């Protein structure tokens, strides 16, 4: 059994983005998704700091001091892209104009609750950024995360232990082991990596899993 | 004749009082009025409430410098964290010397827009069911839950733009626009630092980002900008 790498999780999430979709990529793992969009599709990337049509990370010579992404790294703009101010950027988010938000997560619950902004560590000040706006406002929220913590603790849980970003917002979960859908009947396993079966996946998942009738192996061309 | 240009940074901050609520434009370092913030440190105002997306980087210069000098009583922001260490904010926060009001980023910008628009508040679905909604009025509208968010007005806004004219019309550059337009609208005194001031009419009226009605003072600052 070979778990997916971070790039492979990003690749898998990228395959589900439709041609013409307006998509916001969260900081961290979701940022990698931009590099794996199928070449026959046009996806418009939104950035909370006022950008639509973000392109790939620029080469050194093309870095512009006034052009950054939400993670504050250098960004580029595609022809057709636009700049706008913060209220419009968040009106797009909160008002349901963004088709898909791909977000990193500490934990996701079986109801689709998302926890990705605070570990409640008193040593560090909390920071929420645009996470709550995206989780509530995007038409669809999909979470990308490792299936367990480094210590093997499940991150897909009956209830999140960390403070919530939003309730019942996640519809699909991509992990290094599986693709899961959040349904009214609970979590449905759509895909699993080679060598994985439901019992083994359930053993590293706190939430109860059901295998979809038409489940498939989780294959990555990368 | 209207001429909003002032002679220098000190004149730009004349009259800023202790205890002021100061809105600082920018998202991270981009669009941040660095020189005006440094001038605010020099000006000496203390007991400030700062409204900004972030809480400064490092320990010197800009907002970090203001915090390190203990001029900031409270900060209202969405993301006071960043990768760099040490940071002035972290030290003051751990020592309990600075109050933090954390807001979802869209709530931060919308609360200022609300003040700018003369509205008494707004109901937002963001933060419902989370720690950030604690203590806020909850209301159900058409079957969906919202929290009441109040307007957020500044005594002073310090912003950065690419260019302006003597009427105070402003144009920003690329993602340096961010919070600057809404902050310009939401303060009693708005001070903009610009790289250049051009003749009236030189900015295409169809391309003015912030109309001059929102801007009180302009100061020209020539600056080297660091690449991200």
General description of the model:
With 222 residues, chain A is an alpha/beta fold. Helix content of chain A is 14%, strand content 28%. Chain A has one domain (6-217): Glutaconate Coenzyme A-transferase (3-Layer(aba) Sandwich), CATH 3.40.1080. Chain A has a 10-stranded mixed β-sheet with strand order 4-3-2-1-5-8-10-11-12-13. The longest helix of chain A has 10 residues, at 6-15. The mean pLDDT of chain A is 96. Chain B is α/β, with parallel strands linked by helices and 228 residues long. The model of chain B has no long low-confidence stretch (mean pLDDT 96). At the A-B interface, helix 2 and helix 3 of A face helix 4, helix 5 and helix 6 of B.
Secondary-structure topology with pairs:
The complex is a heterodimer of chains A (222) and B (228).
Chain A: H1 6-15, E1 22-25, E2 44-47, E3 51-54, E4 77-83, H2 86-94, E5 100-104, E6 107-109, E7 114-115, H3 131-137, E8 140-144, E9 156-157, E10 170-174, E11 178-183, E12 186-192, H4 198-203, E13 209-217
Parallel strand pairs in A: 1-2, 1-5, 5-8, 6-9, 8-10, 12-13
Antiparallel strand pairs in A: 2-3, 3-4, 6-7, 10-11, 11-12
Helix pairs in contact in A: 2-3
Chain B: H1 9-12, E1 21-24, H2 34-43, E2 48-51, H3 62-68, E3 72-77, H4 88-94, E4 99-102, H5 105-116, E5 122-124, E6 138-141, E7 144-149, E8 154-165, E9 170-171, H6 180-185, E10 187-198, E11 217-220
